[in-house]
Sequence to fold (273 residues):
Amino acid sequence: MSTVLITGCSSGFGELAALTFADQGHRVYATMRTPGKSAALNERADIHQFELDVTDSTSVNAAVEHVLTEAGPIDIVVNNAGIEVYGPVHLLADDEVTQQLDTNVTGVVRVIRAVVPSMLANGGGTIVTVGSVAGLVGTPYGGIYAASKHAVEAISEALHFELSQQGIRVRVVEPGQFATLLGANGVYAAAMTPDTPEFQRRERFHVAQRSLVNGEPAPAQRVADVIYQAATEQPGRLRYPVGDDAALIIATKSQMSFEDFDTTMRAALNWYE
Fold:
């Protein structure tokens, strides 16, 4: 039985990952900014819930210390907490950029910084970070979110080279479109109000994106299953794409120039704006 620490468990991938690890017999510490927010987790006495805010180093360090004191070494950490800021890059305010990067990038680093020393002392462990297909391709009106996920790719690849020889395995899960509250809870740039052309064009692009998944995102449990796979399979690999749209985008972009990729994806989306 492994001890697993997961961030961002109030809903979506984090909530489902916590349930999946617990169902497989692992000792699960499910964290979020507001413990008790998940009705599904509240029903599970075998899942420990407590506060962890990835934007606050004191909160992160206290949460990790709590697990180490109560359960001993952390075998697996899943960096899932994240937000999505929508808006054209040229209209984003400094605080909006900071909010996106502080949560999705610096937050990941804070957790890694807190857990790695104990993993090294224990002879190893596994770090799984939930990235996105957006970490491999920039999308209109999601540029700063894509930037945060590109950063996750770079950080994870560097960590692999830095820590693999010391027994720490690093994994990145790269979902496409799935049914979670991430999009619904997204933050719109203050300058992109519903009456602006940018807002309306972003809405048209969002509809076009849905064509890659036949209009309906797949159940989020599929991603939770891949998170579990990435954390537990041996020897495993660095990257785990999830979703037919992710597979299509990754394969297409890797096989052609950006100009040809641009043409191909516009045709696939029927989006020529």
Notes: The first strand starts at residue 3 and ends at 6. Residues 3-188+217-243 form a domain with the Rossmann fold fold (CATH 3.40.50.720). The chain has one domain: 3-188+217-243.
